Amino acid sequence: MSSTTLSTLLPHGLSSENVLAALHNHDLMIRTLCPSLISYAFESGNPSTQATYIVTDKKPIGQQTTYKLTLTNVASGVNSLVNAKPPVGILTIAGRWRVDNGHLVEDVEIDGNFMMQKMAKGNVEKTHPVQHSLLLQQARA
After folding, report:
1. Within its chain, how far is the Cα of 4 from the centroid?
2. Where are the domains positioned within the chain?
3. Alpha helices in the chain (DSSP H)
4. Taking CA atoms, which of 83, 97, 111, 141 is between 20 and 30 Å from 69?
C-alpha cells in the first residue's frame, strides 16, 4: 500500500464552515475530483451522508474509464473511496479530506499492484493540488 498527504492553506477570509459545506456537496466533489468528467450516476446510499456513484471520466493518458466512487460525509470533512478495475488489476484509492488548523488536508492511501500504485500516486501528487485549489474557489462562491 502506498500513501501520501497533501495540504493546502485556506485562503484568507475563507471560513472552515464554507470549506466543509463544499466537501459535503457530493456533486461539487465529483466535478472537482474528476476534471475530465464524462458522466456520473447515483448508485446507492444517501447523498447527505454516504453515497456511491458510478463515474465515467478520462484519465491523464486519455483513456475513458468507469469506476465506483463512494463519498462519506463526516464532521470534519469527507472520505472518498475509488474502486476501479483497470485492465492491469484492481485499484483502490481511499482519501480523507479534512479541514484542519487553517488547511485543507488530504490523506490518500492507494492499494493495487506495484505498477498501479506508482502510477496512481504520481497522478494524485500531480493533480490533487489543482483539485484543492478548485474546491477552495468553489467554497468561496
Report:
1. 13
2. 2-140
3. 16-24, 26-33, 114-140
4. 141
